[in-house]
Automatic annotation (TrEMBL):
UniProt cross-references to Gene3D superfamilies, sorted A to Z: Glycogen Phosphorylase B
The organism's place on the tree of life at top rank: Eukaryota
PANTHER family per record: GLYCOSYLTRANSFERASE, UDP-GLYCOSYLTRANSFERASE SUPERFAMILY PROTEIN
GO molecular function: UDP-glucosyltransferase activity
Organism from which the protein derives: Trifolium subterraneum
Protein's name in the database: Anthocyanidin 3-O-glucosyltransferase
Length: 227
């Protein structure tokens, strides 16, 4: 039997070096298997990752112009270009790329798009007849821990006390935070991000869930945890 033909994939990570880099590592893995990848990336950030593209014959960087948002420095493209307080503006700028992403997808015609925090992307790809897959680079245990707590908080800001104790049904003693980590995580829940002022930073995995996936299940210490 002949092997299946290679796929054409698109990668659309969150505009942060800690997300762009692992997405490119994943792209290299797919390229080893002969798949073609179109990698969406802020245009001035390409040079920072060019050396990590091990298969330039199969991985093509697709430059994205990051829209200007009031309060955001004109040369800012990723979270490494701004202080933490301005990260929500990077999220807003990323949301505003939607109108540019649609014609790009129509042009390159990938079969599947791997996306990060772009909650609007599944509807877009569905309308274009393209599959989408949310690929989260955070560890499953962290995602499940914080996701469960956010769900149980019912919209109120999380406190250090909330974060200290694992949620009901979560494996005991699998995560232990230091006091400075608790203070940081609690402070991030008070920041607003993105279009429609969706509360909380995407780093806490509280993006608007894609259609038909209001919950997700993650394997933690061989147990499934629903978030």
């Amino acid at each position: 039997m002949d092997p299946p033909p290679p796929l054409h994939m698109a990668m659309f990570p969150w505009f942060a070096m800690g997300h762009l880099t692992p997405y490119l590592h994943l792209s290299n893995k797919f390229a080893i298997r002969g798949h073609k990848i179109s990698f969406f990336i802020p245009k001035n950030t390409i040079n920072k990752l060019q050396h990590l593209n091990l298969h330039p014959n199969l991985i093509t960087f697709v430059p994205i112009t990051v829209p200007h948002v009031n309060g955001l420095p004109h040369d800012a493209e990723t979270t490494s270009d701004v202080p933490f307080s301005l990260v929500p503006l990077i999220a807003t700028a990323m949301d505003q790329t939607e109108k540019d992403i649609e014609p790009l997808l129509k042009k390159i015609k990938p079969q599947i798009v791997f996306f990060d925090f772009q909650y609007w992307l599944p509807n877009l790809t569905k309308n274009l007849g393209i599959k989408s897959l949310q690929y989260i680079i955070l560890s499953p245990i962290s995602t499940a821990y914080l996701g469960c707590l956010q769900k149980l908080s019912q919209g109120r800001d999380l406190t250090e006390v909330d974060l200290m104790k694992p949620p009901s049904g979560f494996p005991d003693s699998c995560i232990k935070f230091h006091s400075h980590e608790l203070r940081f995580l609690a402070s991030t829940t008070k920041i607003k991000r993105g279009r429609d002022e969706v509360e909380h930073l995407p780093s806490l995995r509280t993006v608007i869930p894609p259609p038909a996936s209001c919950t997700s299940r993650l394997c933690c210490h061989r147990r499934w945890v629903e978030v």
